[in-house]
Amino acid sequence: MGLDIGKKTIGVALSDPAGITAQPVTTIKRTTLSKDMEEVLGLAAEHEVTSIVAGLPLNMDGSRSPQTEFVLKFLEKLKERTDMPVKTWDERLSTVAVERLLIEGEMRREKRKEVVDKLAAAYILQGYLDSIRRAG
């Protein structure tokens, strides 16, 4: 499962059973930390997820930002509630790349806002899956 964790939403993506392709699934509207965790872990259970990879928002120079710390704190809480591996993946430019594709596809701004987070999660997960294949 791939996650794009923001302060207002969490984009969610899943891979196919063979771990080759990532597909966007949904965008969770954030409410409380507890409910957000329940929703993420509920989706993981429903889809028989075995590991989670979340985008880590680093600055362009690789340094951490307040958003990086926000995501890491969320992931620490998530790790406390599950036994499955929770990993991070450098997400620099993932949202920018997805936005660019949607603009090139002439998608209206309102519709882009609805899909960008789950597509960013798929972009993050696909990068992770591709790296595993290259390494292995």
Describe what this molecule looks like in 3D:
The chain is of the alpha/beta class and 136 residues long. The protein has 4 helices and 5 strands, in the order E-E-E-H-E-H-E-H-H. The chain is globular. 31% of the residues are buried.
State the main characteristics.
136 residues, alpha/beta, Nucleotidyltransferase, domain 5, 5-stranded mixed beta sheet, 4 helices, 21% strand, globular
Brief write-up:
By secondary structure, this protein is α/β, with parallel strands linked by helices. It has helices at 33-46, 66-80, 94-104, 109-135; strands spanning 2-5, 9-15, 22-29, 52-56, 86-90. The protein has four helices and five strands.
